[in-house]
Every structure is written in structure tokens, then in C-alpha cells.
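Entry type: protein chain
Record version: 2
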Amino acid sequence: MRYSRAVQINPNRNLLLAIASLAALLVFTLPVAKAEASLKTISTQSGLPYSLGDWKIARNSTPTAARTALGVEDAAAPHAGNSCVRQWIFRGMRIEFQESRPARKACVVGNGFATSFSVFGEAGRANWQTGLRLRVGDSVARLRGLYPQAVFTAGRWVLADFPKLPPWGRLRGATLTTGASVVARVSAGRVSSLVYSVVAADALEVGVMPHITN
């Protein structure tokens, strides 16, 4: 006659296993949630850049405002004309500032107003997204899904193009016209950088983006 040995089941075993599984799940999901929460959106209004996260560039796009929002830049270098390119590598952001007054140097802190914003690299992917949540590193397929109207030309995707926006105001008796574009540069089938550009006749002298007049 055979006797089977009774196996004692710890009533807390299943509970402990459940807690361990939940803890493991949190370890893997919390960093992702944190990364998503840290993303900042580059928003536009009337076709022009309006804000980078909490920085309302439409109201103040000076280098001083950029430092307040992004911290001190890693590098600054003169560019074509009287402009200066400042770069925040740890933010994945590059901004060109134009100084319209010849007597003032663009790379002197406090001079100039932003005319283009470029998002690049891993830091750019971790920090920034477009209004439709396109990021550096995303596939061209995702780009085309989010921006079906995008046009591929000269090795880049034009997501939005406003060659001539309506006049936004007058300065010294002249009517000011503005153009803007949002472009995604691609490499190996993925977005390598996002570029927001602004062209405004004499708008830099007033220190605000053209669509904000107050």
C-alpha cells in the first residue's frame, strides 16, 4: 500500500510571487514613463514657432531667454552674416540668433533674436517632439503617417511650409511679411534632425516672433 506525502502549500507564496512580478514590471516601465513625461513639445501658431516646452519664444526669443529656459549653451560660433549659432548638446538643441544691427555682434550674450531651431541626436530625441509627436530617430514611415501632406525635396521632408504669411504689422512705415517652414532631415530611413526656420523682414528689431504683436 502506497502513501502519498502531503505537500504543504505556503498560502503566502502566490502573493509573494505576485508582488515580485509587479516590482519587476515597475522597474522596467517607470524609466519609460519618466522619459515620456520629460518630453517637451515644440508648438507652432499661424505657421510660426510659438513655444519650446514652457519657453514662449514667440514673446521673447533672445539668447538670454534661451539660457533661462535651456541653461548655458555648450558652444557658440559666428555664422553667415551677423548671426550666431548656439548649441545645447545636452538638450539636443541648436539655435541660430540673428542680430540686425551691424554695430552689435551676434555672439555677444544678449544680442540677437532666434530665427531657426534645430533638434538633433539622442538628446534631441529624449527632450523634444513636434506637435504631432514626431521625434528624431523616428522612421520615415511614421513621419509620413503623422504628416501625410509632407513633401520630399532636396533630401529632406518638408512637414510645413509657409513661404509668405499674411503681413503681421508695420514697423517704421513698412509692412512686414513673414515666411516659415518645418523640415525633417533624414538618414538611413530615419529622422536625423528637425528644423524650424523663420524669415521675417526687419522683425528681429522688435524682439518678438512676428505673429505676436503685444
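Comment: The two ends are 97 Å apart (CA to CA).
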